[in-house]
Amino acid sequence: MEQAEVIAHSYDWGDDGRDGLCITYTYEGIIYFAYAHVNTHYTPSYPYNKVRSVATHELGHSVGLDEMGTGFAVVMNYASNWRYDEWGVYTPQSDDIDGLYDLYY
Ligand SMILES: [Zn+2]
């Protein structure tokens, strides 16, 4: 399999504590399809770059990256109130990129 399809969109799925969500479909361990969602229940009150932080995080899942914990100033940190509000992260950081190299090279 040489390519996957990723659909990114935003909608309001309500007050469940999640400002983003990514659902991936895999075959033999390889992602072939992903939905990367931004929850507009929360994001209209966010600064522009915090919305980017949510979207970039979910797109990170769509290419196979997992969550990282609160101690890491990376876009794959699971909580936007840490990665953006604490550290201003909204683009892939070197540890995120290292994760991609581990997956694809
Ligand atoms: Zn996540």
Q: Unreliable runs, pLDDT <50, ≥5 residues?
A: none
Q: What is the radius of gyration? A: 14 Å
How many beta-strand runs?
3
- Please count the helical segments: 3
Number of domains: 1
Shape: globular
Helix/strand order: EEEHHH
Bound molecules: zinc ion
Strand order of the largest sheet: 1-3-2
Span of the ends, CA to CA: 16 Å
Keywords, separated by commas or semicolons:
single chain; 3-stranded mixed β-sheet; 29% helix; 3 strands; 105 residues; binds zinc ion; alpha+beta; 3 helices
Explain the overall architecture.
29% of the residues lie in helices and 24% in strands. It is an alpha+beta fold. It has one domain. The chain has a three-stranded mixed beta sheet with strand order 1-3-2, with helices on one face. A hairpin with a 2-residue loop joins strand 2 and strand 3 (30-39). The longest helix has 15 residues, at 48-62. It starts with a strand and ends with a helix. The model has no long low-confidence stretch (mean pLDDT 94). The structure holds zinc ion.
